[in-house]
Design goal:
Number of helices: 8
Helix content: 40-55%
Largest sheet: 6 strands, parallel
Radius of gyration: 17 Å
Strand content: 15-25%
Distance between the termini: 15 Å
Order of helices and strands: EEHHHHEHEHEHEHEE
Low-confidence stretches: none
Length: 217
């Protein structure tokens, strides 16, 4: 755990979803490579696929698949929808942290670059809707993370204003950029896919495991 100056408890805590609260990488990897296969393109490694998955599909597919991007989107989602609810797994101790946040009556939510309908289905599958005051997925705001628009939408739904006591917790450099852009408190959870050295900006708090978050709230 790398400490920082945490002066007081947060007014709200907003989380990324994939690789922050849950492990659902297999469906993403399988669906992406099935898309490449159907379009006659070379498969990607798991590491390369997952590192690109931090961006929303509407941001990446037009660049990756050019004029075939809508066809690629259809193939990807057809495959993904068949398997994602069966394979999703909470990361260790995550629900314990959510319960603590709920008990402390700290408003909590999710801002993710996963399609909003699929995100809500995964949250419902785990029975976690009760923990979240707000859920914002890809395609709900004008643009997706790291744009400010998903954050503005979340604040509007929660009747909150910009301030440093709103925390954003994520697992990669895009999440840190998103937090910094919105002038909120950035919490980075170390993981096997995204390393501290991958970060272009310094988070306000770096944790080795998500369960240590409870020490600061």
């Amino acid at each position: 755990m790398i400490k920082s100056t945490v002066k007081s408890s947060p007014d709200a805590i907003l989380f990324d979803w994939d690789n922050t609260l849950v492990n659902n990488w297999d469906p993403i990897f399988i669906s992406y490579n099935e898309t490449l296969k159907k379009l006659g393109l070379k498969k990607k490694s798991k590491e390369e696929t997952l590192k690109n998955a931090k961006y929303s599909l509407r941001e990446t597919f037009p660049n990756l698949f050019k004029e075939d991007w809508r066809k690629a989107r259809k193939i990807f989602y057809k495959t993904f929808k068949k398997i994602h609810l069966q394979k999703i797994k909470p990361l260790p101790k995550v629900e314990k942290v959510l319960k603590i946040i709920n008990k402390k009556k700290i408003p909590c939510g999710v801002i993710s670059n996963k399609d909003s309908d699929l995100l809500r289905k995964e949250i419902n599958k785990l029975g976690w809707k009760k923990y979240f005051h707000v859920i914002v997925g890809a395609n709900e705001a004008k643009k997706d993370k790291p744009s400010k628009f998903p954050f503005l939408l979340a604040l509007k739904k929660m009747s909150l204003k910009f301030n440093k006591k709103i925390w954003y917790v994520g697992d990669n450099d895009l999440d840190v950029e998103f937090a910094k852009k919105n002038k909120c408190f950035s919490v980075f959870i170390q993981n096997k896919i995204f390393k501290i050295n991958d970060l272009k900006q310094k988070p306000d708090l770096i944790l080795k495991k998500i369960e240590t978050l409870e020490l600061y709230i």
